[in-house]
Structures are given as structure tokens and as C-alpha cells.
Write a sequence for this structure.
């Protein structure tokens, strides 16, 4: 997929999720919806925010946005979640930086009647959120592994994987998928702690 198609897909994704969030937000004169991304520097999340901003304006919703200072900044995401609840958000869309550490904050939000939807990355457990819109990262890894094997055309591989930071299942899912797609056997990564 080229960059333009990727940006379009990201924008369509953001529009769809924001429209869903606006439709299920509690009855308010102007629905307040939160969007918390991992960072504000990753082009994927920049486009997600731009698409969400545009859709919020179109739908007449107020969009609150925040992100972690760095990828993996769970404390920043927890603070953003708490601030959005205090500001009246009834639906919060979240790209969790730490799949497990964010769970207590999500539970507190839900206890206050806030719907929390995970985007792009699942929580651990996935059932901790009210919904999930994400890539099948294992399948993506399988496809990349199959592609790499075909591209090497039978040559002996020298493979090193650079996975995401510990505590995040996306890297582990892509890692394990790649190994399966390539036909390699290795330790099963659970939460990217390899």
C-alpha cells in the first residue's frame, strides 16, 4: 500500500470510528468525544487525529485530543483519560501504549459511564474495552513473512526482528505471525518481552 492510500485508509478509519462514537455518545447538546493516541509525532496518528477533527466538525461534536509524550507513555495516557472524563467526554477512543497498565484507568472510566474503544492496538485482555477497531497484527506478520520468504527465493535467511517495547502485544503478534509466515520456529512471544 502506498503512502497516499495508507493516509486515505487512516482517514476513513478515523471518520468511521468517530461517527460511531458520536452516534453512541450519551444525549448531549454537543457530544464530547476523546481521542488519545500513543504519540502526536507518528504520521499514522497525525492522520488519525486530522480525520477525527474533520469528522467531529462535520458531526457537530466536540473532540478532545491528547497523546503520550513518547510511545509507551502510559502515565500520560492515564492523565489524558482522567482529564477527558472531567471535561465531560462520554466516549473515549484510545490507542493504548501499554496494553495491561492502562486497564485500571479504563475500568475507572467505565465505572463513570464512559464508553472506551481501543483503536489500532488491543488491550490485554481485549475484553477490558467496549470495542476494538484494529489490524489483525498476527495475520499482517504472516503475510510479511510469506512475502520475505518469496522475495529471498530460497536463499538462506539471516533474520533479526526489532519488536516494540515490552508490555505491548502488537509487536509479539507481528513477530509470531512473521515466523509462522516464513515457516520458522522460535519461542512464542506473549507480550513482546523477547
Amino acid at each position: 500500500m502506498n503512502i497516499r492510500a495508507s493516509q486515505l485508509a487512516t482517514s476513513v478509519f478515523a471518520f468511521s470510528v468517530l461517527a460511531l462514537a458520536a452516534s453512541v455518545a450519551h444525549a448531549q447538546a454537543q457530544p464530547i468525544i476523546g481521542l488519545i493516541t500513543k504519540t502526536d509525532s507518528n504520521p499514522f496518528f497525525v492522520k488519525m487525529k486530522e480525520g477525527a477533527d474533520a469528522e467531529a466538525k462535520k458531526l457537530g461534536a466536540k473532540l478532545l485530543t491528547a497523546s503520550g509524550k513518547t510511545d509507551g507513555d502510559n502515565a500520560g495516557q492515564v492523565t489524558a483519560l482522567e482529564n477527558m472524563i472531567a471535561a465531560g467526554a462520554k466516549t473515549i477512543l484510545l490507542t493504548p501504549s501499554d496494553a495491561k497498565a492502562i486497564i485500571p484507568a479504563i475500568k475507572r472510566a467505565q465505572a463513570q459511564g464512559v464508553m472506551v474503544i481501543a483503536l489500532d492496538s488491543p488491550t490485554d485482555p481485549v475484553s477490558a474495552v467496549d470495542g476494538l477497531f484494529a489490524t489483525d497484527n498476527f495475520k499482517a506478520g504472516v503475510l510479511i513473512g510469506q512475502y520475505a520468504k518469496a522475495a529471498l527465493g530460497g536463499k538462506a535467511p539471516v533474520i533479526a526482528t526489532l519488536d516494540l517495547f515490552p508490555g505491548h502485544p502488537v509487536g509479539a503478534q507481528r513477530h509470531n505471525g512473521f515466523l509462522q509466515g516464513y515457516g520458522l520456529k522460535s519461542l512464542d512471544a506473549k507480550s513482546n518481552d523477547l
In short: The chain has six helices and five strands. The radius of gyration is 18 Å. The beta strands are 32-37, 62-67, 91-94, 115-120, 131-134.
